[in-house]
């Protein structure tokens, strides 16, 4: 049965992107180089929050889950994000160390997909990232209550209180909150989608080969 929402959805049009030029034949051999180029182009074209990505994980029963997080860093084909190991996503990343990421830059009709295995950062890297957090984010990391129900707590602003006071939760000399960490998704496969206003969409997939190089292939859109 069609609902009002069905009708509303049917009226929504596909946004016509200002598709930038993309020639898969001259794409870089390294997908992270192409990712950086596209990310910089997204920012240069005022795509809001271009470094926000959907992070998909699975739990031990194989049930999928997804949410958005910030991309903290990229190095050596690992895409890094920050999350508590006690949050649902942290437990999933820890117990089933595989993940997928999706970036969507609609103004340009672009999507980048990343799939790979997951590892957590060493203490030095986590500590350096923790130091860069705002006082509010550090407080939340120290409280370590993300994704818990709020119903039996006072409203969040009261619960968090004054960050400068709550930061005293931090043990003197502690480099980071005990459960907060960076997680890296080691890309094994990356795919670049370029929409085209005329419908000639392009998909370029990179897959890691056995000697650490990359194979590419074009896919039907
Ligand atoms: C724009 C945006 C950025 C976010 N970035 C992060 C992030 O970097 N790390 C994080 O733990 N949660 C981030 N969140 C919150 C997550 O989407 C999610 O609600 C939260 O982490 C709980 O997820 P979980 O219950 O699956 O663990 C962000 C949310 C938004 C809307």
TrEMBL record:
Pfam family, one: PNPOx_N
InterPro entries: Pyridox_Oxase, Pyridox_Oxase_N, Pyridoxamine_oxidase_dimer_C, Split_barrel_FMN-bd
Cofactor(s) required, per the database record: FMN
Keyword Flavoprotein found: yes
Record domain Pyridoxine 5'-phosphate oxidase dimerisation C-terminal: where: 180-221
Domain Pyridoxamine 5'-phosphate oxidase N-terminal positions: 40-156
Flavoprotein as UniProt keyword: yes
PANTHER family: PYRIDOXINE-5'-PHOSPHATE OXIDASE, PYRIDOXINE-5-PHOSPHATE OXIDASE
Family: Belongs to the pyridoxamine 5'-phosphate oxidase family.
Protein's name according to its UniProt entry: Pyridoxamine 5'-phosphate oxidase family protein
Organism: Kineococcus endophyticus
Highest classification ranks of the organism: Bacteria, Bacillati, Actinomycetota, Actinomycetes, Kineosporiales
